[in-house]
Every structure is written in C-alpha cells, then in structure tokens.
Amino acid sequence: MTKIISEEELSRQRAFSAKLREANAHFAAEYGRERLAHTETYGCQQNENDTERIRGMLKEAGFKFTEDAEKADVVIYNTCAVRENAEQKVFGRLGILKNIKERRRNMIIGICGCMVQQEHITEKIKAVHDHVDLIFGTHALYKLPELLYNAMHEKGVVVDITQSDGAIAEDIPVLRETPWKAWVSVMYGCNNFCSYCIVPYVRGRERSRKSADILNEIKELVKNGCTEISLLGQNVNSYGKDLDEGIDFADLIRMVNDIDGVERIRFMTSHPKDLSDKLITAMKECDKVCKQLHLPVQAGSNRILKEMNRKYTREEYLEKIEKIKREIPGIALSTDIIVGFPTETNEDFEDTLDILRRVEYDNIFSFIYSRREGTPAAKLDFVLTDEEIHKNFNRLLEVQNEISKRKNEAYVGRTERILVDGASKTDKTMLSGRTDSSKIVNFKGDESLTGKYVDVKITEARTWSLNGELI
Ligand code: 5AD
Ligand code: SF4
C-alpha cells in the first residue's frame, strides 16, 4: 500500500513557506533587493526532478533565482552517490563556497540528496565543512520550508537524514524549466540491490505513486502546454507491484497514451529482468510511446552478471532485445555499461564488446566501476589494473562510436519530426531538438519554434548527433 505524507504535515510545511515568504518580503523592503537562491544538480533524472521540486518550494517561499552561486543568499546542492567522482565534485565546490561565505556571512549553504543519505558522508561534512548550514536526505525533501527556516534562524547545522517509512509526498510545488516536456516520477526507490549500487541504500525500497495522482499530474501538465512526458523511476517495470490497484507499468502507459494532448511518451529506467511481453505489446500498440528503449545491460559476461546480482544471463538479455527489435522495427536502443567491475578479466570484457556488436545500440552510457562503501561488491578484489581498465574503457568507446555513427548515417535523407528544445548548446546560431527515437538534431531556425514540433530533413550524421534542414 502506498503511504502518503499527511495533509496535516504538508500544511505545516506550507505554514513555514508562508513565514519564509514574509521574511523575504521584509528583506526586500529593507535592502532593496530580493533574496536569491541557486541550485545545482548532480546525477540522474530523478535528481533533476527532485531539484524541480526544490525550486518549486523555494519559489513558493518567495525566493528568486540566480545562476551565480556567488550572488546567492541560499545555495542548494542536490547530490549523487552513484560514483565517487560526483561526490568529489561536491566536496570541491564546498571548498570554493567556504571562501565566498567568508565574505557573505549570511549565506545559507544546503546539501541534499543521495550523497548525504550516507552517514559517513554527513559526518565528514559536519567535521570538515562547518560552513554548511543544512543537510537533508532524499526522504526529507518535502520538509525543505521547515528545514530552511530553521537553518536561517538557528546557529549550527540543521540535519535531517532520517530514513522514512517510504511515504510519498504529493502536491509539492514544482518549477519546471521546460514547459513543453516534463519528467513525471511514477515510483521511487529500488529493490534490486545490484551488488555495485548504492541506490537502494540511499533511496529506500520501491514505492509506486497511485495511478490517479500520476494521471492528474500529467493532465495538469498538458493543460499548461506540455506534450512530451517522460515517466521516471529507478525500475519503472516493477511499477504497481506494491499497489493494491491491480495495474502494472504496461497498463499505466496505456492510460497515459489515452490522455488527449500528450504527443510523446518516454520512460526510464527499465530493468531487463522485469521487461515483460505485455510491456512490449503496450509499447507497440500505443501510438504515443516513442520508438526508443533504454535497457541497461551493465556487462556481457554471465559470471560478471551473476556477481553483479543482475538476475539475467546474456542469453536472456539478447533474447529480449531480439524480441523488441522484431516487434518494434527501427526502435532505438541504449544501455548502461560498467567497465572494470571487481573480478572482471579481459575475457569478461570481450563479452561486453560482443554484446555491443550484437545489439548495435544507438548509444551507450559507460562508466568505470566506482567502489561504494557498504555495497557487497566493495568486498571483491580486482583482477585488472587501473591502466588495463582504462584501456578497456577507451576500447569500448571506440567500438561504440563506430556503431553510433553508422546508426546515425541511416537517418540521412529521412524527414524526422522534431520537438525543438531551443538554441543548441554548442552553437547558439542553431536550434536543437530530438527525434521520436531521441536523437539530437541541430538545424537553422528561429528560437520562437522552441517547444514546438517541426519537420526536419536530415542532411548529415555525426557520432552523437544529426544535422538537418527545416522543411
Ligand atoms: N560504479 C560505476 N557505475 C555505477 N552505476 C551504478 N553504480 C555504479 C558504480 N558503483 C551505473 C550503472 C547504472 C547507472 C545509473 O550508473 O550503470 O545503470
Ligand atoms: Fe542500482 Fe540496480 Fe537498482 Fe538500478 S536496478 S538503481 S543499478 S540497484
């Protein structure tokens, strides 16, 4: 059964939000400027979505926003714990903020998200970075108004990293940057305990949102001009298992498909072991579901998959891929790969390359294994040296780049329907958008097309993107 944070608790938070609003109005009257907040997000789309909530709550509490941390009155870092380098970046940033805060004593520095849900990290921040005012974990997100109010009025650091009973907070204000497309969380947490992964420890057990709440959120988004919906969860394929509604993820996407005004439906992430025939059929039959699937394989060797506790073999994975390709011809596939998992040999790695060649993914997200304290894999030993692991990683990219380029070349000459995301990040004179299959396409056009669908003829293929002409 899904537990929901009570209305009483939410209204307590709204009261703190009102107090902050009042304090911010006083501040503006006294100093002739508004209080500014700055947020930074590390990690996955779930975190991006959480930051949209954080910004929604900050806006409701009367803050305006700045891109510049140095100008901010409140800085919030929403952190990631999946790999060590993301944590090191945050510690680096905290070092820089220390200098800034010496000049601006009233600045409030908050750290939230997966990284601080680990006790040893929170202890380290408290011990080494005493300029941090607020630390809150993934379960305490909805309490931001209260925690921030306390941090602004109390001496010392305010900490809330309690693991909750998994209750979901509905009706939190959300501030989305792109009104035409939105991430919508359908479930939180993960039960899979892949042996390398910290997520189940920092985000807790799987819990699904009620379908009515999800559908209402989407209808509201559509009313405000949103046409592309990406359903989000650590393992969307097990959506509904904990509900008493008798529906699963395939049923849910059919319901979303029936909403007038929705044009595109995407979803991630799918765990291969839970990708059902029923879901493949739903993907095939729902005209709004994009021809795209992200299906993390992680490794190609059966021994490594077992060590990773992935619960499928390479043969089972490849069989599912074959089935999807057969049922949905032309589907774009992507995956996640970890290189250098403990005990991995060069032979195991060859099996990963073999998977790449057989599946021919459109693109991959590849990572060098990062040891996470408290996970079972942290106790395993390495066979390969760092140098060998890096060499394999580079080889993986080489093999994939060639496949990606080839896959993209097949688009040249086609006309694709693109949802325009705005000016291209790399070349401001170009617009950038995505095909149904999620390929990035750059083309000349007016920025007023942002958020609209246009037809573009593909003229050139690159490894990571396509170029085209508006027609
Ligand atoms: N080291 C490296 N990559 C990891 N991932 C998860 N945990 C680790 C780790 N300890 C990768 C997986 C996952 C993606 C989100 O991050 O590939 O699918
Ligand atoms: Fe981590 Fe595995 Fe859960 Fe994905 S499915 S979040 S890799 S434990």
General description of the model:
- The chain is globular, with a radius of gyration of 23 Å.
- Helix 12 packs parallel to helix 13 (386-409).
- The chain has 13 helices and 19 strands.
- Helix 3 (84-103) links the parallel strand 3 (74-79) and strand 4 (108-113).
- The mean pLDDT is 96.
- It has helices at residues 7-31, 45-60, 84-103, 119-128, 144-153, 199-203, 211-223, 249-257, 277-285, 302-307, 314-327, 346-359, 386-409; strands at residues 36-41, 64-65, 74-79, 108-113, 134-136, 158-160, 181-185, 187-188, 207-208, 228-232, 264-268, 292-294, 332-339, 363-368, 415-423, 431-434, 440-443, 453-461, 466-470.
- Helix content is 37%, strand content 20%.
- It folds into three domains: 7-160, Methylthiotransferase, N-terminal domain (Rossmann fold); 181-409, pyruvate-formate lyase- activating enzyme, CATH 3.80.30.20; 415-470, Beta Barrel (OB fold (Dihydrolipoamide Acetyltransferase, E2P)), CATH 2.40.50.
- It has 471 residues and is an alpha/beta fold.
- The strands form five sheets. A six-stranded parallel sheet has the order 2-1-3-4-5-6, sandwiched between helices.
- Residues 190, 192-194, 197, 199-200, 234-235, 271 line the site of iron/sulfur cluster (SF4).
